[in-house]
């Protein structure tokens, strides 16, 4: 196995493009992230990287490390276990500390096992990737969907930040990552048409994000309704409308849920989303239960 680490998103998309195009829904995260860095190079950090793993010259695995939060997981797409172990060896040889790994469950476990070095592997979150091919239209509710504008900056930023905290609360586990976008990042998302709001009589009650297309796939998220507005169908109609528009444009549509969250899993199943594959995030912890970065 040969591992190549790349910092240039153009080079990564060139090298990994055939694999990503073959399974564009499964590859939605690295494909979307690479496209964002390509479109906005100013947001790339010096420590960000992508990687391809080759077997006899053929790309059999893709990974990245670009998360702007701690503990900054390495993210893996499905790959043979020997490819995941080769990647772990390459990362370790660079002297790079890894406390967290996310992505395809089997690849994650092989990679984390190769890096454990006396630490235990603790599963902290299990997610499910869903795709919709035919939207089941929910009951009509009052209001309408509209793109967020710069006038919505404050509420959009706050709701993006609140999503991870409140989704974890619904799922009944600790918060893994909370990232509130900077003013500049949120403005970029608004200007790119990523953030959408459901509005009722001049009052915004819900936010749904949808990423620009990459390899013909759009990924929905976050999906957030403040607590006082829940149970009124805003999320269902917003997601259904964005998914319908995506499919009508000839693109595919997917999203992730926390497998522990019965609310979101039930909602998307009712809208016609079907499970594609399961991902997980694991942390490598010492005997004291702490990550190396927290010692």
Automatic annotation (TrEMBL):
The residue ranges of the N-acetyltransferase domain are: 143-295
Gene3D superfamilies this protein is in?
3.40.630.30
- SUPFAM superfamilies the UniProt entry points to: Acyl-CoA N-acyltransferases (Nat)
The UniProt GO MF terms for this protein read: acyltransferase activity, transferring groups other than amino-acyl groups
Which InterPro entries does the entry mention?
Answer: Acyl_CoA_acyltransferase, GCN5-like_dom, GNAT_dom
Coiled-coil residue windows: none
| Pfam families, sorted | FR47
* Superkingdom, natural source: Bacteria
Q: Spell out the protein name for this chain.
A: Acetyltransferase
